[in-house]
Design brief:
With 217 residues, this protein is of the alpha+beta class. The protein has helices spanning 7-11, 36-48, 57-66, 73-141, 147-155, and strands at residues 3-4, 20-21, 167-169, 176-179, 192-195, 215-216. The termini are far apart.
Length: 217
Amino acid sequence: MAFHTPFNQRASAKKQATPVYIGFQPPRPERRKFNWWGFNGMWLAFGSLLTAGFASPIPLLISLNGLRRPGKAMASIGAIVSMGGVVLATTIVLLISNAHHHRTHTRETAQRNKIVKKQTKETGVLLAVAANKVKTFQTDAGDNADFDIEANMLIVEHIDPWGESLRFDAGPDSGLVRSAGPDKTFDSKDDIILALHPKQKSNSKVATHKSPGHVHN
């Protein structure tokens, strides 16, 4: 490329010589294109925060597209703000979901406890009926070595609200009429028991599914 440097500029050592082009126009610097994707993604990202981040996926996609073009500053800001909005929206959804599950679980537990409480009262009445049968049979049979077996055969027809037959347990001082309780398993913590001849009447009390091993008269 031919050019001529003026003499006055040659004499100045501190100042860089400016070339003078002869016969044609000097090349114009290339104009950088404006990154509209990044610009739109940025302001939409800030606007999506007004929706608690639920609209953030849209500016996030626009900002990611803007990152593929020159001038990535605004696109980067838009992408960061959009991802923050997505995190905010996700957190809100999880909190609402957990609160709903907790409320549903609490309501179901309360309803189940109400039903179990009613069933426990019904079982207490059933145990009393079965105990009276065993007492009558014991009085009539007297000293019988197979009394516990025959007592179980006598009360097996009584079914508790959970679908299990009652059981009679013979003891040295008293016999026990037992229901397996809500878990349908004998000798567990929720068994409901009625003693035929407790040692101390003052200590006798009605058992519930929450108080294992209690005996009522």
